[in-house]
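[09:14] KT: can someone run the structure on this one? pasting the chain below
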Amino acid sequence: MRRPARRRLLAALCLLPWCGPLMAADWQAVVQLPCSGGALAIDARPYARNEAGGMKLELRYRWRGQTLEAVRYEGYYLNLDGYRLRDPTRSYNFGLDLDTRGLAEPSGSERGDTLYLPSSQADAGEVRRVADCIVDNAALLRTRLQDAVIVSHSLLGLMRHTARPQLDGIARLIHAESPFLGIYQHTHLLLVLRDGRVMAQTNSTANNPAEAVQVGRVERAGRGRPTLRLRTHYRLGGDMHEARYLRRWPHHRSGRALQDDYRIELEPTP
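[09:31] RB: done, structure tokens below
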């Protein structure tokens, strides 16, 4: 059977109710940096596999077994830069050629995540040693983040999917908690902030006026998923939006829907 016909057949089979995600998407090792205070490990997990044999990757960074929050700030033009800590005593920049203009034509040619290592997990000296380790292993990090091939299968192993992380290194290491509990994106950004606010924000290039509005708040009570209390309607970018459509918006790194991470409760808009 020719390849296009085989792909069409596999895609058609995936419409059947028994298909689904037949092969579990497990974490696969990308690289482990031998840092003196504990290895910094990077893993990848596939999601959003498609009929062309491609897929997306969720990257996970772990130090001493604890997962570090990561944000790819340059993936949002300059719209999230106001949330990024700039204290030079707590922020390490690793010299990647990043996009610093936030325009449609990128000003930099390299990409990398900004990692957060909170003070509850490491003191200043430990963070410095992790930063030194990233610098010392920059060549290894670049090679593995560009060349590592992550493989997944679907349809009882009949279809093979591959992807690469396609990053150039780690952009920054910040000795603080991430300001975000979650970033979700569709027609604009939905930011779940650590301070409890839920913000809707435009995600246009830097030569367009940015706009943000609070649309709700986070509530934590007992076990299970936190609750998002959202206004039923909100105005952003000159348009009125309905919060009920936010339920299926995907997480910026994992593809999980907002309703997978939070219970959603809608409240009348004042």
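[09:33] KT: thanks! Residues 247 and 260 are 8 Å apart (CA to CA).
[09:34] RB: yep, looked fine to me
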